[in-house]
Amino acid sequence: MSEHDSVYDGLSGHDAPGDDSQWAFGTDFEDPLAGVDTTIPDGVDPAVLATYCLMLGDDALVHSHRLSQWTSRAPDLEDDIALANIALDLLGQARLLLARAAAADPAVVPVLPEGSPVPPEDALAFFRDTADFRNLRFLEPENGDFAETTLRLLVGAAHRLALLQRLATSRDPVLSAIAVKGVKEVTYHRDYAGRWVVTLAQGTAESRRRVVTALPRVWRHHAELFRSHPVEVAAAASGVGVDPATVEGEVGAVLDQVLAVAGLERPDVPAAGPMPGGGHGMGRDGRHTELLSRLLAEMQSVARAHPRGLW
Amino acid sequence: MVTARVDDRGRDLARSVAARVTDPEMPMLTLADLGVLRDVEETAERVVVTITPTYSGCPAMATMRDDLVHRLRDAGYADVEVRVSLSPAWSSDWISERGRRALVAHGISAPGAAPRHDGPVALSLLPTRRAVRCPRCDAPDVRLVSEYGATACKAVYACEGCLEVFDHVKEI
C-alpha cells in the first residue's frame, strides 16, 4: 500500500513544468489513443469514418448519461452500482470513439478559445450543439421507472452488441479494437438487463404491470435502430462500418427470446416517424427530441461555463 | 529503436521499475501481474511504456499512467512516454499466477478462464455460473450477490460457509 496511501497523493508530485495532468474537470489529459496508429485505411473517406464514429460514440455517451442519472436512486445498492458500472463502460467507449472521430477528421471538432486545454473528445462531448449529435432518438427519453430503464437497456445493448460484434472485423484497426473490447462489456449489459426484465415480468403483479406499461413506450423508437443512414451505408460499403438493417433479424431473435421467457409479446404501437427539419429526419441526421437538448444542457453546463478549465 | 548508448542493465532497470508499479484499485497487484503492462522500451532519448486498458472506461488508467511516469522519473528517466495498446483487448487470463495468489491472499477471488467470443454471443438469462471458492475459507459453496461490484471488473459473492461477502474479479 506504499504509493496510494492518501487520496491526495495524485495532487502532489506534479512538479514538472507543463504537467497538465490535473485539471479543473477532474480527469487528466491522457490521450486515450496515445501511441495508437490512427492512419485511415485505403479507400475510406475520413469524413464518413469520423461521422460514423460520432454516431456510435454519441449513442454510448447519451445512454451513459441517462444511466448515470440513476446513481444514488436505484432500487438497491447492487443495482445502483451495476447501472453506474454500465454507464462507465459506455462512457469509456464514447471517449475512445469520439477520440477516433477527431483523429479521423479534425474538422468535426468544435473550435474552442485559444489556450483552452480541452482535448478533442471532450470538445466533441461538451461543446457541440444538439443538432450536431448523431445518436439514436431511441436513447433520448427520460429513464422512467426501473422497468422502463431495464427494457431500454436490453434493447439498446442487444443492438449495440450486434453492431460491435460485426465491427470486430472493421477495416479500421482502431474501430475494430474498440469493438472487440466493447463486445466483452456489452455482453454483461445485455445479460444484466435481460435477467431483470424476466425477473420483473415474472415477479409481483406490480412489477409485471410496470414492465407491461413500459414496453410500448420503449418500443415506439424501436424501428429507428435498424433504419440505415447514408453514412452507415457508406461506412459499410468501405468495410469500416455496419449497416444496421443487417442486424435486425439477429437482434429481434434475442429480444423475442427474452420476451418469451418473460411471458410478454412485442407491443403493437405506431413507430415514431421522421422529425421535421430536413435530412432524413433521423437522430443520425441530428434531428432530435427536445429531451436531448435538456440532457445536454445539464451535461455540458460546467464545461461550457469554463471553456478554459479554470475558475 | 534501441541505440548503442543503452546497456542491458539500464534497459532492465526501466522495465523493473515499471513492472513494480501497482494497480491503484487492487494495490496487491503490480501492473505486470495484472497483464496491463505490455512493453517497456528504452532508447537514448526516452522510455516508452505501453499499457492496455482493462475496461474501456476504467478510471484507474489515468492513475496508472501518472504512477508510471513518476516512478520512472524518480528512477532517473527524465523523458517517459506512456502509450496505449488497444489490440489485443485485455483479458483476465493475462493476470499472472503470482497475481492470482496475491488476490486470494487479500480476500479477493481470482478469475477463472475468460469466455471465448467466437461467433454470436449467446444470451444468458440465468445467473452466471462460475466455479468460485471462498478466498477466506476455501469453501466451494458460494452465491452470487451482484454481477457488479465496487469496480467494473469485480462481481460480489457471499460464502455460505463462513458467511463473508467477497469480491470476485470477473472473467472477461
From TrEMBL, chain A:
Disordered as annotated region, ranges: 1-24
InterPro entries given in the database record: Aromatic_CoA_ox/epox (IPR052703), Ferritin-like (IPR012347), Ferritin-like_SF (IPR009078), PaaA_PaaC (IPR007814), PaaC (IPR011882)
Signal sequence coordinates: none
Pfam families attached to this UniProt entry: PaaA_PaaC
Gene of this entry: paaC
SUPFAM superfamilies: Ferritin-like
PANTHER family tied to this protein: 1,2-PHENYLACETYL-COA EPOXIDASE, SUBUNIT C, PHENYLACETIC ACID DEGRADATION PROTEIN PAA
Identification of the protein by name: Phenylacetate-CoA oxygenase subunit PaaC
TrEMBL record, chain B:
Top-level taxonomic group: Bacteria
Domain MIP18 family-like, chain residue ranges per copy: 20-84
SUPFAM superfamilies: Fe-S cluster assembly (FSCA) domain-like (SSF117916)
Signal peptide bounds: none
Residue intervals of the PaaD zinc beta ribbon domain: 125-170
One Pfam family in the UniProt entry: FeS_assembly_P
UniProt name for this protein: Phenylacetate-CoA oxygenase subunit PaaJ
Gene source species: Nocardioides lentus
